[in-house]
Amino acid sequence: MTVFMKIGVVALLLLTATPCLAQSPARTFTIYQSIPYQTHVAGSEVSATPPLTPYLESVGIHRIDVVYLPRFMTNGKPDQKKIEAIAKAAIATPGIPVSFDTEFGNRLQPETVIPGATEILNIYHRYNNVTPAGVYGTVPQNTFAWKPNIAHFNPLNQRYASLANLVDFFSPVLYNYEGADTVAWQHAAVYNMAAAKNYNTGKPIIPYINIGIVLNTGQKTNKTGPVPVRMLTEAEMRTRLQTLYDLGASGCIVWASSRFRTPDDKAPVFDRNSGWGKALADFAQAHQ
């Protein structure tokens, strides 16, 4: 049994069998969001006033700037002027971290990813050492769900160690790749949190999570069409937040796709008093 597997077994036992973990004095856990929808529930109505982002701020859920490739790359290469502009603009909002979506190259060949990611972070920090910056699912690498042989990612993660010195926080990806299997999701969380800690930097760990489970409809979905999802229940979202909290995360980034559609073919609506929205708002306000 590898060190990571031993850590996983012990941590999961603690999570499932030690209630005092959840009862310890609350420490700060910051929930950030990259949710592209416009509406929330207000009383018995669905409203777009105020807009969703300031509304979420009012319930303790904060902004993060997730920066996609067109904003910082040109012709497949880091664009210094674009990155400089992002860095300078972010100085005015030090409380809104920046997360670069460095999904380029072949992740199994780090030499196709590390030079570009290094250049991006170096340019950013040349102009901004105030606003924290990280990268999406690169250091450590996205494991795409729990697997019994998940420890085979250990050597790959170590090859990305140079980036651990450049990011201000780690963002492993813990989307609902396991479907409705919450225990498998917890196994993945244990491994990915340990992988981030294994860089021995002491930097914050702020994983990506999402709000729904993609449904297998048996039909192929094109790259621009709607993606059917079943939204997480209040209990499912609360379990994810509590698990990350107990594992030592400093917060999380709640991401949602603009293509997500509920079973009635509508964009999800944030409800502070029900379901996944209630879990997020309650946890955010309890851990400010």
Give a structural overview.
The chain has eleven helices and 14 strands. It has a four-stranded parallel β-sheet with strand order 4-1-13-10, with helices on one face. The protein has a three-stranded parallel β-sheet with strand order 5-8-9. 37% of the residues lie in helices and 15% in strands. β8 (98-100), α6 (114-127) and β9 (133-135) form a beta-alpha-beta unit. It is of the alpha/beta class and 288 residues long. The chain has a single domain (3-8, 27-286), classed as Aldolase class I (TIM Barrel). The longest helix has 16 residues, at 182-197.
Write the layout of secondary structure elements.
Blueprint (H helix, E strand, L loop, with lengths): L2 H15 L2 H4 L6 E5 L5 E3 L2 E3 L4 H7 L3 E2 L1 E3 L1 H4 E2 L2 E2 L1 H11 L7 E3 L13 H14 L5 E3 L18 H6 L1 H4 L17 H16 L10 E3 L1 E3 L12 E5 L2 H13 L4 E5 L4 E2 L13 H12 L2
Parallel strand pairs: 1-4, 1-13, 5-8, 8-9, 10-13, 12-14
Antiparallel strand pairs: 2-3, 6-7, 11-12
Salient structural properties:
disordered N terminus; 4-stranded parallel β-sheet; alpha/beta; globular; 3-stranded parallel β-sheet; 288 residues; TIM Barrel
What would you give as the CATH superfamily?
Aldolase class I
How much of the polypeptide forms β-strand, as a percent range?
15-25%
Please, what is the average pLDDT?
Answer: 91
Radius of gyration: 19 Å
CATH architecture: Alpha-Beta Barrel
| CATH fold title | TIM Barrel
Helical stretch tally: 11
